[in-house]
TrEMBL record:
The keyword Secreted applies. Residues 100-397 form the Pectinesterase catalytic domain. It comes from Solanum chacoense (Chaco potato). This is Pectinesterase. In the N-terminal section; belongs to the PMEI family.
Amino acid sequence: MTWLSAALTNQDTCTDGFADVTGNVKDHMSENLKDLSELVSNALAIYAAANGDDDFSGIPIQNRRRRLMEFETHHDEFPKWMLGGDRKLMNKSVSAIQADIIVAKDGSGTVKTIAEAIKKVPEKSNHRTIIYVKAGRYEENNLKVGRKKMNVMFIGDGKGKTVITGGKSVSQHLTTFHTASFAATGAGFIARDMTFENYAGPNNHQAVALRIGGDHAVVFRCNVIGYQDTLYVHSQRQFYRECDIYGTVDFIFGNAAVVIQNCSIYARKPMDFQKNTITAQNRKDPNQNTGISIHACKIIATSDLQASKGSFPTYLGRPWKLYSRTVVMLSYLGDHIHPHGWLEWNATFALDTLYYGEYMNYGPGAAVGQRVKWPGYRVINSTDEASKFTVAQFIFGSSWLPSTGVAFLAGLST
């Protein structure tokens, strides 16, 4: 189910890449990709039908009958890229870790650039490759841990100390996908104690700081800083813990199955006349097991936005695609959140088919009395329903996160 969901997302991204192409090439590719999308969509539907109906209308996620759970657990419990030694790596001090590659701009490491370090990573390795990036600002072109570079762990000297930065944006005639300052698509990617940044600014529109599309990705104690489209949770299963995420419009977006837990999510002051939207989830098929779950986080405003929040309303999200799915649970919502909570993408688009939920949030922005009245929006009152968006049920994290050593809450609360 995860692979099929990711395949459909990848095809959708490929189609988006032809948006500005003209002539026969665009028509030919669009038709071919449409056929592929239909095949994958049909496969998703067959898989869903064969493994039981959903408990709630509009929420087809990993809650199938027992035999499916057994199949998923069997294949996910001990993935080869999650080695037992990773548990210690996540909590050890940098000085106690023996890195395979050390990046230092001053020449005191193994290599001087992150690109050199990535090049040295073996392909399809079962061994965890540890890359320690010493403090400094690193601005390099096309930094990407590719699909064959599995099992890679980046460790920095801390938030704001080790900084991977860039300034690419769609204003340079790039697709959003290709604006990322750093990207990772290899399975088992881990990042710890670093900052990922895109400094293009709000006037340059979409500009990604970090894009991840690898399965079983973990981002721990990192800053992700940008404006529009900061964090691209593109596809597969992902987990973020104790991170600080900054942005303005659609700044957590994509179609992964992702849990963001114990993080601080900062809305910044946008361009004049803009409205802030924290999420833009782009699930396009009702059988994809994807969505954004924000759990036990703080959703707050930066000081510049706080001073002018009356002029720049902030919303929890808007639907990028027809079956957009986002849940905010047990989180603090600041007074910059608009009373309506959620924003339309375009008139009535997706309001009947999206799934937006809130569960037991608190703070001055958490009151639900004036929330939108869309058919797809709900205040979640059932613990069973909310539990479907936890680490344990939404990304099956209890089977693979323990081996990474990252702290996590499997259920709704301790």
